[in-house]
Every structure is written in structure tokens, then in C-alpha cells.
Records
---
Amino acid sequence: MRNKETTKQNIPDGWREVCFEDVLSFERPDNYIVKSTNYSQNNKIPVLTANKAFVLGYTAEDFDIYKKNPVIIFDDFTTDSKYVDFPFKVKSSAIKILKSKDKKQAKLKFLYEKIKSINFPRGAHKRYYISQYQKQKIALPPIKEQQKIAEILGAVDDDIAKTQEVIDATEKLKKGLMQQLFSKSNVKDKRWGIVKLQDVCKVRQGLQIPIKKRFKEGGENRFIYITLKYLKALDNVEYIENPSKSVICGKEDILMTRTGNTGIVVTNVSGVFHNNFFLVDFDREKIVKDFLVYYLRSGKIQKIILDRAGTTTIPDLNHGDFYSINFVMPSIKEQQKIAEILSAIDKKISVNKKLKAKLTQLKKGLMQDLLSGRVRTNI
């Protein structure tokens, strides 16, 4: 790639200014709207939306299918868009189906990337494409440069998609293992016992601290105040001074939310824990901490916790409901082995999520450089 300065009009040399309506035609989706939302994975025809979900489901309707691909589907209200290169149907009449008017002048994939790069201001709930969006002016490079830019950005998209596939497959593997390992019906080894949590754990609540007694800076005998708000944004730190030892937790302890967003399990944090947390004080001679963490986070136990917390405005899990939950307890060595296996899977998920984040950031930078002409491709 080589850098090249733009002209005074901010249009790079060799590029031209056009509106989307100059290079894109649109079609209403009326003929391709699904008649029934009775979707099934056993069906073959995808029903699409332009928002994040993309595939709403699969329909058995084998008629009125859009097949003139590739196209861009564009949500007239949200201005979300997706590039589609396979047959499909849609659910909403708000979709516009966009195609390149002249493939020799404008590559559809380049135009899609251009659309994705635009931060379009939306206000009232209304349709935007015909009245405003298609009239936006863009800088359009020569066709060969469009193709090259689309290929570069597409290659990064492919890497992002492959990384997400690895994440999805690994999370599916983890979910299946947890269902199998923590299922009462799969306890065949007589050395595995089933007890109540009250037999191996005790819980205690944290402390509600008035705002006026919280500090913004650390100091002697001051501890970080652990709240859900703090856990979501670790930069929003508050401190509590001279708290009771009963509300102080260390990194080897386990916390679990008991009210509101009930069932969130937290470990490896230290400080003073808020009143909406339980500290789960477990028998460390019988239980491996990470095994218990994974057990409490398992789908089956999470469902039990949520059911017992109730469906009121503010769900609340009381001590008795927690204590009455069954706990599948293998030997210490087996607990350790199970925790190590699940931890290794978590590490793989974490590594790939970080990789995806880096690739996404790379794509963002490339879009800013290539679609503006600030960096030019060698063609």
C-alpha cells in the first residue's frame, strides 16, 4: 500500500464523487416476505433481517425466494445492513434490497463496506433510504481499486468469522461437558456423592454502604467496594474504610448475586462486597473452589437459582433456597481434574475472543484508511 494525499475537495486523485442513488438500485421486499414465522432448523430457506441477528430462522416456504444474489439488505428504519450472497426470504417490509446498477462501475461489496463505515444520524422512527440515505455523497475509486479494497476488508471479515466459529464451537463443547459432568443422572461412580449445599457451604450477605461513606481514593484500612457496577467497569472504583471482617472477601473466595441479577458467580476479586452478594464459604477440605464456581455457573444450577429467586420486580434468593440446592460432589482429585479441563476450555475461549477483538479493531482501522483514500492500494 502507498500513501497519497487527497485533493482540496477531500476526494483522492482518480476518485469521483457520487451519491448512493447513482450507483445502487433498490427493490421492495413485498414478494419475498415470509408468510409464517413457524421456523425450524430442519427447513432450508433462511429468513433474514438486516440487524445483528441476521438469520431469524429457517422456513419451509419454497416459493417467492429471492435468488438474484449478491445483494445488500438494508433496514429502512435502523439503517442496519447485511451483504447476502445466497437465496433468502425476509420477515419485514422495512427491508430494502440493494443492487449495483453497473457492476463495471461500482462493486457491490465495496459499496457495502462504504455503507458500514457511515455513522448515519437517526432521529424519529421513520424510513430513511429514499428520502435521505440514498442521497448521501461518497468518494468512489476506480473499479480495480474498489475490488482490491473489498478483497482486503473481506479477508479480515473471513478471519473474524472463522474466529467466531471457533468461539461458538468451544462454548458449545464447554456447555455439553458441563451438562454431562454436573448431571445427577450421570453420577455412576459410587465415590460421587450428592448432598445439599447446606452440608458443605455457609453463606453470608455483604453490606449496603451509604454513598456519603464511600471514598474515591484508596488509603489505610480502605478496601475496594465490590458492586455489580464496579465489576462491569473496573475504572469506577469506590472504597470503604474500616469495614467489618465479615464483609471482606479475598481472591480465593466465591461471591454470588442474590438479588436483582441473581446467580452471577464471581471469584478472584478482593474487597468489601455489597449487600446484594452472598459470600459462599465452602468446606475447603472437601471442595475445590474452581469446581464449585463452574458448578454454580452451570446451566442446570443457574435455572434452579433463577426459579427459586422468583419472578418479582426484584428477584431475591434467600438463604434457605440456596442451601436446599443439590450438590454433586466427586473426590477432590476428580474435582481438580474437572476444573482443569473446563479452565483450559475457558482459556481457549478467552484467547480467541481477544483475537477477534484485535481483528475487529484492525478492520476498523483499515476501513478508515482505505475507504477514505488516505491509504491507497497497489493495483
Note: Residues 1-8 have pLDDT under 50 and may be disordered.
---
Amino acid sequence: MPLRQAVRHRTLTPVFVGSNPTGAVNKGDYVMKTYELFTTGIELDIAEKIQQRRYQLLIHSCIYYHLNQNIISDKQWDIWARELVSLQKQYPRISEKVTLYQYFKDWDASTGAFLPITEEWVIKIASRFTAVKQSKPIQKSVQKKPTNTKRRLF
């Protein structure tokens, strides 16, 4: 499928279709990319947002339920979840084509506990996030400026 002028210069991660949880849709050895599935820039933007929210909710659910940690607040998770449900209801045709559809098609945003949070690839990504969160920032040595203890009155 040829690229449309409106989306020609986008560099995107692939959007995968089908039942494979890691998502690859192969045409031979070729994986379809987001910009090849949608004909307008608006559809592409919606598909990207759906994909982003699905991955965010899946990874953060794994962090919370499987790794027993928390990086984002429950309030933030709820905001993302409601946004995803809204997008999927508003744009069902687009939603069906975006990766992880089979896990989110009837999802109601009530919990992430029943998403595929124990898949090996999900745990690897979630573990990377928690490792970054736990790593201590590098401290620079800062020299204090000498303070002048003498005060001038005039």
C-alpha cells in the first residue's frame, strides 16, 4: 500500500493486527506499519493514541499487579484507561486494527489485573521501567561559592 503524502515523513513503531500478542502481522516476512494501515493523518493519530494507551496500561498494570510496585498514580491510570475506552468506542474500526486489540476489545477500564501482564515480553519492559525508577540519579559535585562574612555598612 503506498504511503500518503500526509504521513510520508512519520517515523512510527509498527501497529500490529491479529491475535499474536506481540502483534506481528506478516505478509511473508513483512510487518505492516501504522502508516500503511490508515489512509488519513487523523486516523493515524487516533491509532497511535490507542496504541500508546494500550501499551501504557498494560505495562503499568504489570508493574502494579505482577511486580508489586507503582510508578504512576491510580488517578493517572484511571485517566488513561477512560481515555482508551472512549477512543475504542468512538473509533471501533481503527481500534480493531491496532495491536493488542484482542485483550482490550471488551475491556471496561475497571482493572488491569486481567490483561496479559504475565507475558514474558511485558514483564521485561515493566522491569526496565522499575529499574530506571529505582536507579539513583548521578550527583554532580558542586563547589560552594565562598561567602563574604564581612558586611559593609556604607
Note: Helices lie at 34-37, 41-66, 74-90, 92-97, 101-104, 120-134.
---
Amino acid sequence: MNAAFILIPVLILVSGLVAFIGNVVGRSIGRRRLAVLGLRPRYTAQIITVITGMLIAIVTLAVVLLVSNDARQALFHLQEIRQQITQQEAQLRALQVSDIIYLRDQEVLRTVIDGAEPPAVVNNRVQAFFDLAAQSARQRGAAPGPDGEAVRMSPPGLAITDVAQDIVERHTSMVVRMIATRNTVRGQPLEATVIGFPNRLVFSEGETIAVRRLDGAASRQQVEAGLLELTARVAAAAKTRGVISPPFALASSPPDVRLDPAVLLATLDRVQGQRRPMDVRVVALSDTYTIEVVGLVRRWAADHGVDAVLVGDQTGAKQVLNRLSGLPVPVTSVRERGTTLLARRRYFRDHPPRGWRRFLPLSFQVPPEPYDDYAAVVIAETYLAQKSGAGPRKTPQSRTRSR
């Protein structure tokens, strides 16, 4: 029941009671011709009437504040309420001009972490993942909130140790994704959650993903439309089997399935050349996993003119080399031992410690942000030095960080 239905009648009755008492006192003073503070009885009666009116206001205000929390908030926290309204209006204006840096359900970052590795290694990888996600969010325009955090995890209290423990308990290769839980406006903290699931084999090499019968006697437009429909079937089958959406897309988006234009034209010509109905099958060229590294590297190689793909020779190198063996560019294993230490030195050369950290030996310090990009540069320099016949580079020549 609404409190107003009780409060309003009570206020009316109390005000009437105070007015009645004031009237009785005033009349009694008038009849007895009493004086207060030496004033004449008429003025004394007027003072009693004024005091009665003041008592009515005081009693009314006291009852309202006692009963209604909203009234107390409005009276004593009005300035804070106005500030909140101003912030909400600013967010609304930002939404109206589409200044949104993350949509609800959009991927912020993804990685693959092997749960079979030692717990300390898994924890470090999860820590690096969270740090890189926060760095990425800040670069896109997210700002720290009153708690100083640019990324707020949902549910509240979700910690790095919780995610790392879950991965260790699964004891298998895990896909870890950070997903925005609401639209994020520039200048506001990002609210996100972390989900993890096994990076399992989806399609085996040579497995038929989808098939469609096309009539080679039909028009070229009809055959082309049939091939495009076959592509849609492949995307649907990939999503059903567990292949996830492209990086940074909505988590609910379909997998990124593309047909090579040259293969599409060749298939189109071959179907029409047969001049009869025939089955067209889409077959997996290699083992395909939930996160498909091969397709991503293949796309980078085509889009950016990659001359070679370098793979460090440490943890998981053999499996990665096997999966990348079908690429149209050379895939080379490079000695990785010691690159972490060299990358750390390179980082501190470009970003010297400040404050009291200047007095600590660099061997006791760890960069405050992920520095895998420095490790990649060191690996590339090692490969180029070996290729040219020179020894590996010991000192960096550039102070510009690669991104």
C-alpha cells in the first residue's frame, strides 16, 4: 500500500489539532487579557497565532521526514541527486550521438590458455589477459570509475584467481573471452564478464561440412546463388558445431566463413561445364577448432602480404606448426628461449621505471602491462639475424614500440 494514502490524512489531522490547540490558547489569553513580554493582549494573541502556524509547518515537515525516505533524500542530498541527473543526461546525449565504444554482447578480447600447464603459468596468462583487456578498453575510450577501475567485472567479485582455477580444473586447452554485458559509452567504465569453454576439434581434416546439388544446365546466376547458399549452410554448420564469431564481433554473430573468389569462380565454371546436376561438397582442408588459428593467419597473410610466419619453439609449438603446415607462406620455427628476458629489457629501455622503482634492479621488476609485442619483435630479429648469418641482436636500436 502506498504510504501517501496514510501520510496525507495524518498530516491533515495533526495540522488541524495544532491549529485547534493554538486557537484555544489564543482565546484563553484574550479572555484573561494576559500579556507576554510586556506586550498588549492583542499582540500576544497574534504572536500565539504565528507560533501556531510555525508549529504546523514544523510538525508537517517532521512527520514527512520521519515517514518518507525519498523526502529525506530530496532535502539533504539534493546536490548529489542533481549531479547524478547531470551524469545521466550526459550519457543519454552520448547515446543519441552514437558515441558507444562497446555494444552489449560484443567481444572485448579472446585468448587460448592451456589448462594442462602449471597453475602458476595459467594464473600469469590469465593476469596478462585481464591486463591486455583493460588496456584495450582504455584505448577505445573507456575511463576509470570512482573505484579507479576501467573494467568492472560481472558478477561482482569475479577475480583472476577464479578464472585461472576453472581453467586448471578443466586441464585442457580453453578459449577465454571477455564479453561486454551492456552498452559502454566513451568516458565510462566497461562492464564485462568472462566466459571459458574448451577449444575442441570441430571439423576433422577431409570431413564434409555441407553439400548441395546444383544443376549445371541452369543459368549462371542460379548456380552462383546456389553456391552462396552453400556458404550460408557452412556458416550455420560451423556455428552449430561450436566455431565462434570473429574477433571483436558480437558473441551471437555467425562464424566468419568466406569463399575464396578464385575457388568460387572455378567451381562455378566446373558446374556449368558439366551441363547436368551434380553435388558440390565443402570439405575441411585441415583440422578446425573452436578458435581457428589457421584461417586467421591465412587471412592476415593474404591481406598484409606476409612473407613468413614465425613460431616460437617452446610450449605447444609442435601442434601449432602442424596446423599451420598448409599455409601458402613459409612457416618457420624460431628459437624462443631467453626472448622473455630480452623483451623485458627492451620494454624497460623504452619505458624506464619512475619514482622509487628507479632504485630497484630491473631483474626484480616486471612490466606493469603485457609485453608480448616486444617478445614478438625479439623473435623476428632473431630470425632475421639467423637468416643473414649474423648473431642474434643483443640491444635494441629503436625506442618505438610496435603495436
Note: The first strand starts at residue 100 and ends at 102.
